[in-house]
Amino acid sequence: MIDDILNQIKDGKLSVEDAKKQLNSFENLGFAKVDHNRKERTGFPEVIYGEGKTPEQIISIIKAMQSRNDDVLATRVSKEKADVILQQLPECSYSEIARVLYWKEDKPLQTKEDRYIAIICAGTSDLAVAEEAALTAELFGSRVHRIYDVGVAGLHRLLHHLEEIQGATVSVVIAGMEGALASVVGGLVSHPVIAVPTSVGYGANLQGISTLLAMLNSCSSGTSVVNIDNGFGGAYNAVMIDRIARGMAID
C-alpha cells in the first residue's frame, strides 16, 4: 500500500495532502475512529457492531468506509435500525434473520475451488446465529455449505450429510441445549471444528452457559469454542483457516 501511494505521488497522480489522508491509520468521526488500514494488517476490514449504536452513527461509519471502498459488514443490527439506514443507503443489503447489514462493491467472492466451509446448525431456533456465520463467511470470500436442522435428537439427519461435511475445510457447528452436536461432528471429521454455543434452551441452559461449558468440555479433539451466540466470531476463524488452506492467509 505505501509503495503504491509513493509511486502515485512520484507520477503526479496523487497530491501530498491526499496521500496523508490515505496513510492515516484511522478516520476520526468524533464518536468513532474508523480503522481503514485494518484489511492491510489483518486481511479483513473493520466490522461494525450494531448494538449500542444509533442508525445515524452506523450510517456515518458506513459512508466513511465506502469512501475508501472498504467492504461493509455490520452485525447485530435490528430491523428498526436497518429500515432507517436503508432509506439513506439503499445500496446496502440486510438479512433480518441474521441481523446483518452489508455492502460490497462487487458480489461476494465465490471461489472456483472445491474448498468450502460447512455451517452446521442443530435446530431452527439456532438459525439466526447460523446465518450470521454463513453471511460473514461469504462476505469475507469463502464458499459456504449450509447444513441446517441436523441436531442430535435425530442423528440420521446429520449422517445423511456426512460426506458433504467431511469434505469441508472447516466446520462451524452451532447448537444450543446441551451442545452435543459439536462433539458428534468432531468425532466424524479430520478437519478443525469451531463450536458456537447458542442461548437456546430451557431454564438450566442458563442462556447458553451450560452449552458453552459442555462444548468446552468436548472430548472430540480439534474442537475449539467461541462465545455464546457469536456466529460472527466462529465464521471469522473459519475463514482464516479456509484462506490458509487455499494458500491466501491475507486477501
UniProtKB/TrEMBL annotation:
A Pfam family: AIRC
Signal peptide range in chain numbering: none
Single biological process term from Gene Ontology: 'de novo' IMP biosynthetic process
Domain PurE: 115-247
Molecular functions per Gene Ontology: hydrolase activity
Domain of life: Bacteria
Membrane-crossing segments per the record: none
InterPro entries referenced in this protein's UniProt entry, alphabetically: P2CMN_synthase_LarB, PurE_dom
SMART domains tied to this protein: AIRC
Protein name, UniProt field: Nickel pincer cofactor biosynthesis protein LarB
Source organism (scientific name): Aquibacillus salsiterrae
Gene name of this polypeptide: larB
